[in-house]
Amino acid sequence: MSITSDLLRGHTDTIILTHLLHRDSYGYEINKSIQEKTANRYELKEATLYSAFRRLEEAGMIASYWGDETTGARRRYYSVTALGRQVYKKNKLDWEETKEIIDQLLKEEEQ
Amino acid sequence: MNERIKTHVNSLFQGAPQTRKVLDLKEELLANLNSKYDDLIAGGFTPDDAYSTVIAGIGDISELVRQIQNESAFNSHYSTEDKKKSAVLTAIAVGLFILSPGAVIFFDSVLHLYNAGPIMMFVFIAVATGLLIYNGMTRPKYVKEDETIVEEFKQWKSESSEKKRLMKSISAVLWPLIVVIYLAFSFMFAAWAYSWIIFIIGVFIEGVIKLVFELKG
What is the ipTM of this complex? Predict the structure, then answer.
């Protein structure tokens, strides 16, 4: 998984933004959903996840607030901002274009 | 709350400054790690396996803690610069106040323009007063670091003391101004008999300003 992880890491921010598009969420829930979507093939380290949260929040793409859990510990929730949605759209288009280009370049030429 | 996870996380944060942000990160991390641990146990992991899986998933957070530390250092640097600016403004304003009677002497005795002196004095005073008020208004507010009660309390405290500070700086400007007007008016019109009434007006004005502030608060 190590080579793929390097390629994936560059998209951590966009992956998080995608997860927040439809509802607010917290660190573990986001990571769990990544694991489920990829059938346990990919999971973020906590360090990577929180660095990304901080980076995104500083850039104004996400906002955070503490939840008011009645049982157990408080959770920090994140929500996507309007800027975050724009960045998501742009990154997704960029990725689709990149994917096409790489696909073309890595295709074996037919003799 | 799993004690082993807590102990491990505490060891990760050992030596880090106990700032609000660092404590928040620790609390967030702990809550999420515990949820993960509970899920793993529910999924049939033994406590030992669940613990090692959780710990292995954390990765290297020392870099993250360092970043947060640097941020706090930057913030305190920022406020030093503001303090400097505020000190310069106050110094200029006080200087203008002290120089303002000099304007009268200069225009009267050196240039023999008898009306220009008092006018210049009032211009000096007006500029100095403006500077002091500007300084009082533009002091940086305490900005909330996050939505916790402690931060809200700090902001509330800062806001109420900011009001007090503004009130103080207005009073500090008001009274010298009244004395100057009293002297200038009395000298120019030889009105010593009744010009003292300005002090009573001054008390009244101060009372009105205070009232406005209280109502706003």
Answer: 0.86
